[in-house]
């Protein structure tokens, strides 16, 4: 059992409440980077309960990063993580502890044991409130909904679609970044100016830093998107009761369909899986929040998301500024290390197939898998096994019942929507096949 005691400490600079530390037996305390200054620089009251949820999500992500995957038991993969977390109202959190543990177990594949205790040093105590009052630069929050904004292509398209569908309303974007992970903050900053130019005065962005100040032991980032959801709830608290929190992600990636038996359950995040969204919304209700998380693209492939965008001219002009890569820090096998994306991980492969499907211009990648004149097929498959896995996925015979069984093995789904989910995977296979044939890999 990996036991972690969370402690808080008043310290300076005091941008985001008390300092938060993870204390593991036999190790020095590790500080959490929990910087929500953007939220602190707002007019009006600060919702302490919503802030505490963002704090909780960051703690989970920090613990997930702190404990090495090989610290598991039995299979040396599944970890047991016990955390004692100080909160303002332990009884409130204890009432839904079992459901939170179930949610986290689905998210990371580990066994979680949570204990909530009374805070001796409040995360948002008098020092935090005093600092908020001292800020000279403050802004009012106006908006009708919140959208999680990662800097990826789906989140970009989701913002554009919502603004087009609601031409008289504004949207709040909730972003987080961890500088030990992919450079998400730079991705977001690169895209934001185009959104401000196209929709002046209608987009407000909140960004926070979440993660360990040290690097941590695990590098799967399975729970990183949980910090986006926590900050989405915090952003929604400024908008009002009943606010929708959009998490735009194409349904094919959200379902985490096991492309091979070896990859079953191994993708980096399950935060947008329909079952996880159901669990998270249930926990929100138990904690007393009225917000609701929704994925507007749950039954669409990435190519369909692009092709159906309500502002094609804008998306075509800016989509290459977004990044969907999951392996940008592993550039050793790249042909061009100046590129923003690898081109050979599953998200990059899905993106290239989507761009082809939607008729967008080809993009530049670190490994240009479409250029067979310079590199042979065997060389293209070297960086990792993802490209070969996708090829095998396309060339394996899968009937509709088998597709459904594989989907259900990777997470609970509503059987009344079986046809919708199976059709989505059928269309995904066709989308990937079209691209692979175009570049002569099948």
From TrEMBL:
InterPro entries with a match to the protein in the record: QatC (IPR049676), QueC (IPR018317), Rossmann-like_a/b/a_fold (IPR014729)
Coiled-coil-forming residues are none
Could you confirm whether the keyword Iron-sulfur appears in this record?
A: no
Keyword terms of this UniProt record: Queuosine biosynthesis
Q: Look up the domain of life of the source.
A: Bacteria
Write one Pfam family the protein is assigned to. QueC
Recorded hits in Gene3D superfamilies, A to Z, give:
HUPs
- What's the protein here called? 7-cyano-7-deazaguanine synthase
**Source organism (scientific name):** Haloferula sargassicola
Q: Which gene encodes it?
A: queC_2
